[in-house]
Design goal:
It is a single chain. The chain has about 300 residues and is an alpha+beta fold. The longest helix is centred in the C-terminal third of the chain and has 52 residues. It is elongated.
């Protein structure tokens, strides 16, 4: 669809929890009566509708003022009736538009719209090429670190040649909040939008790396604990089969030996002290005895 093909009025399909970007194909589940009627009637005609995210996802029946002002022209590719009764619609974004004023509210919203053209970048500049290359590389790293993302996503990103579609595709699939996605959709300047996306990618990659580091550390600690427990159980089994002591019993034996040695040390200390006293007694007795022999005076000893 070219810019001049945007109709003056569009049937507006409010989206509760997603943002549609030009060129991107997404499935949406349609449950509101107004939305089902809009899809069925549009599918029978030119299949062109306007898709706009609502400001508050908790509002069940948003009015014109409760919608963001910038949305995406979309083509209905397929309408599927699911076994659970829900209606799934596969749509493809074409180009941005801006809401002007309300035409009708019933049976669904119709509004006058105008083009929301973006500023085209100088694709030959080195800065632009480096920016696109950085975005592609970060997106591929995120896919590698994210176990829930299929490897086909990486193949798709490698094969996208259009810088505009690359930015839109990554913006649509990046795990950021809806207001941030809506902000990317509303940014007219392509380079500014690309730089903002690069910041989101950098933050997401840092969070994933930190998350993986934490998980790997926890996994390593658990593996070490399990390995140590397994080895201890094996050692205990072997010692029991050989008739030896288990590690716990060995520890108790070592504690008992340490107590005995401590008590023996105390006894030896007491013995040495008493021995020194006995030596002093014998020395004094010998000197007094020799003195007595020289003087002839009697000496009495109290032995106890």
């Amino acid at each position: 669809m070219h810019n001049e093909d945007i109709p003056e009025t569009l049937a507006i399909l409010p989206l509760r929890n997603t943002v549609l970007f030009p060129g991107v194909v997404i499935p949406i589940t349609v449950g509101r009566d107004k939305s089902i009627k809009l899809v069925r009637e549009s599918y029978k005609t030119d299949r062109i509708i306007g898709v706009v995210s609502q400001k508050d996802m908790n509002v069940e029946d948003p009015g014109f003022e409760q919608l963001h002002k910038v949305g995406t022209v979309a083509m209905i590719i397929k309408v599927l009736q699911m076994p659970d009764g829900n209606t799934t619609v596969i749509i493809q974004g074409k180009q941005r538009f801006k809401l002007k004023d309300l035409v009708q509210s019933e049976p669904y919203i119709k509004a006058r719209v105008e083009r929301f053209a973006e500023d085209k970048p100088k694709t030959n500049s080195k800065e632009f090429k480096a920016l696109i290359s950085s975005i592609r590389e970060l997106a591929l790293q995120i896919i590698q670190l994210s176990p829930n993302l299929p490897s086909e996503a990486g193949i798709a990103i490698r094969n996208i040649e259009s810088p505009t579609f690359l930015i839109n595709f990554i913006s649509s699939n990046l795990a950021i909040e809806l207001p941030e996605k809506q902000g990317l959709l509303e940014t007219k300047n392509f380079v500014r939008r690309a730089k903002q996306l690069l910041e989101y990618l950098t933050t997401e990659l840092q969070l994933l790396e930190l998350k993986n580091q934490i998980q790997n550390k926890v996994r390593t600690d658990l593996d070490k604990q399990q390995r140590d427990y397994y080895l201890n159980q094996q050692l205990k089994t072997i010692q029991e089969e050989l008739g030896g002591n288990t590690p716990d019993l060995e520890i108790e034996n070592l504690k008992t030996r340490a107590k005995i040695q401590k008590m023996a040390g105390r006894g030896w200390k007491t013995f040495r002290q008493r021995n020194r006293k006995a030596g002093t007694y014998q020395s004094c007795r010998s000197r007094l005895f020799r003195t007595n022999q020289l003087s002839g005076a009697p000496i009495g000893f109290a032995l106890g």
